[in-house]
Automatic annotation (TrEMBL):
Region described as Disordered: spans on this chain: 540-560
Gene Ontology terms describing biological process: malate metabolic process
Family: Belongs to the malic enzymes family.
Protein name, per record: Malate dehydrogenase (Oxaloacetate-decarboxylating)
SUPFAM superfamilies assigned: Aminoacid dehydrogenase-like, N-terminal domain, NAD(P)-binding Rossmann-fold domains
Organism: Kwoniella dendrophila CBS 6074
Cofactor(s) demanded: Mn(2+); Mg(2+)
GO cellular-component term (any): mitochondrion
Superkingdom of this protein's organism: Eukaryota
Co-factor: note: Divalent metal cations. Prefers magnesium or manganese.
């Protein structure tokens, strides 16, 4: 729904009537249209007699949802509901957030995206393809007509949710991310736009599918690709300069370089790089607080150096630099705290050039002077480095073996171990094994949800933190949106990570057996706290453009102001006006 003119005004003027308003998910209320609204909007004979409340509609929708026998059918039901009535859709999800999150996002959304062309019924955003390059501005303006956007989520669908290249199905991941922004950060869905840059696909299964709905060509690469992306970003800068541009599931060869190219030009965020790094940083900061050590004193092995692993390394490195007491730690010194590994072992200068990805900065590449020519498997590296932190983003199930964990535990009292690979079957080690092999000392965060682990020494369970990006990226985005920041700075992200770590139950309850991150059920409250910290950092960095925002030093007024900006799934009262919203 669109926000009323004032917090006390629950009335919205609309310029739609009859079947037109019933077919518009932004304004449709279904059986909740009042008698007066039915008279004004030409709906009397088009609806059953009874007038329902939103609560009654939500209860009915939940019963319908439960009747679906598989997760994919439940996903399809929710997608259909979203296409009919946004308010009811978000009301249902909000009331059952933990239950339905895996249905509208990972893992079920990945299955739905893989079947996107086979299941296609209705468009859900903006589709842009190279053959229509010259018409891109016209199509962009048509999608944004009459709207000042707060958020654009865009994907080129090359690296979707662990299932790879999905071509035009990428629109669904953009839409899913926008949904999570609304659910956990209160972004008005009328001010969000999902976009796919359908530049072709190298997925032979899609190309051979007669029902494929996308651009049926191999992926565009090189200068043609860059020109295509550049034109799109230019349109955002020109026509929606105040909105946040969220890059999602771009391939490893493009994700980091596009972020680097555009991050100083407009507020840009890449969840796969910055969101993953930010939530991992938060969990690590909580773990470090438990061990009463400092971030700059850690020795960190990152096992798996793709987009996620590199994103985490860069985020942690930036935090080490910004949090240094004297401010004198530079990139080289901060990078020296890391040992990056991939399928070739430790990333070091003696490796053949084609075995070191171009995206890996020189400062992260270990020199032979400090390593030598020893074997560089994980166990050998652990023996030599004596790490305090071990992070897995390799998707290699069982990579963190009993021998590796026991060796690490010899040299640190509370090893911090994060097997972050998704899904569960690709996790580097299970929390149960990690606790057992470390004599119940390991501090753990995982990429997938795990049940608490028995802790026989203390007669209680150890709660495993889930490194869920949805605990932080909506709050980071909300902070940038509310402050109308010209860009998303490193210190804004780190401020959000620090606030998230402060909310960890292990710290708030002063119990190391509690989780290093808040429960996902608290995501809306947590992301609001993160947003406030981001706003304060944006002001300090002098990138905020919002004139109506209270002085961030006045915490009470800032909270009140930010709360009023939040969209909630509730019905407004409609008055018909031909010049009203459409």
């Amino acid at each position: 729904m669109s926000s009323p003119s004032s917090p006390d005004d629950n009335t919205v003027k609309v310029g739609l009537k009859g079947p037109t308003i019933l077919n518009n998910p932004r304004f449709n209320k279904g059986s909740a249209f009042t008698r007066d609204e039915r008279d004004q909007l030409g709906l009397r004979g088009r609806l059953p007699f009874a007038v329902d409340t939103l609560e009654e509609q939500t209860e009915r929708a939940y019963i319908q949802y439960q009747s679906r026998e598989s997760d994919l059918l439940k996903n399809s039901f929710l997608a259909s509901l979203k296409s009919q009535n946004w308010t009811l859709y978000y009301s249902l999800l909000s009331k059952h957030l933990i239950e339905m999150f895996p249905i509208v996002y990972t893992p079920t959304e990945a299955d739905a995206i893989a079947e996107y062309s086979n299941l296609f019924r209705r468009s859900e955003g903006l589709y842009l393809s190279p053959p229509e390059f010259d018409k891109m501005e016209e199509d962009f303006l048509d999608a944004c007509e009459g709207r000042q956007l707060d958020l654009i989520v865009v994907s080129d669908a090359e690296a979707i949710l662990g299932i790879g290249d999905q071509g035009s199905g990428g629109i669904a991941i953009s839409a899913a991310k926008a949904v999570i922004y609304t659910l956990t950060a209160g972004i008005d869905p009328a001010k969000a736009l999902a976009v796919t840059l359908d530049v072709g696909t190298n997925n032979e299964k899609l190309l051979d599918n007669d029902l494929y709905v996308g651009y049926r060509e191999k992926r565009v690469r090189g200068q043609k690709y860059d020109d295509f992306v550049d034109k799109f970003v230019g349109l955002v800068k020109k026509h929606q300069p105040n909105c946040l541009l969220h890059f999602e599931d771009f391939g490893v060869t493009n994700a980091q370089r596009l972020l680097a190219k555009y991050r100083d030009q407009l507020p840009v965020f890449n969840d796969d790089i910055q969101g993953t790094g930010a939530v991992a940083l938060a969990a690590l900061q909580a773990g470090i607080a438990v061990t009463k050590s400092k971030l700059a004193d850690q020795r960190i092995i990152i096992y798996g150096s793709g987009s996620a692993g590199l994103g985490i390394a860069r985020q942690l490195r930036d935090a080490i630099k910004l949090e240094s007491e004297d401010g004198k730690i530079d990139d080289k010194e901060a990078s020296s705290k890391f040992w990056l590994m991939d399928k070739h072992g430790l990333i070091k200068k003696s490796l053949e050039k084609d075995k070191i990805r171009d995206e890996i900065e020189d400062d992260f590449i270990r020199s032979e002077d400090d390593w030598g020519s020893e074997e560089n498997d994980l166990l050998t590296v652990v023996k030599k480095v004596k790490p305090t932190v071990l992070i897995g983003t390799s998707t290699q199930a069982g990579a963190f073996t009993e021998e590796v964990v026991k060796e690490m535990s010899k040299h640190v009292d509370r090893p911090i171990i994060f097997p972050l690979s998704n899904p569960t079957k690709k996790c580097e080690a299970t929390p149960k094994d990690l606790r057992q092999w470390s004599n119940n000392k390991a501090l753990i965060s995982t990429g997938s949800p795990f049940d608490p682990v028995d802790n026989p020494d203390e007669g209680k369970k150890y709660v495993v933190a889930e490194c869920n990006n949805a605990l932080i990226y909506p709050g980071l985005g909300l902070g940038a949106i509310l402050s109308r920041s010209t860009k998303m700075t490193d210190s804004m992200i780190i401020a959000g990570s620090k606030r998230l770590s402060e909310l960890a139950p292990a710290l708030t309850k002063k119990d190391p057996n509690e989780s290093l991150l808040p429960d996902f059920g608290d995501a809306p409250k947590v992301n609001f706290e993160i947003a406030l910290s981001v706003i304060k950092a944006s002001t300090k960095d002098k990138v905020s453009r919002e004139d109506t925002m209270p002085n961030p030093e006045n915490e009470e007024k800032l909270r009140e102001w930010a709360s009023r900006k939040s969209w909630e799934p509730k019905y407004m009262e409609y008055k018909y006006d031909p010049e009203g919203l459409k």
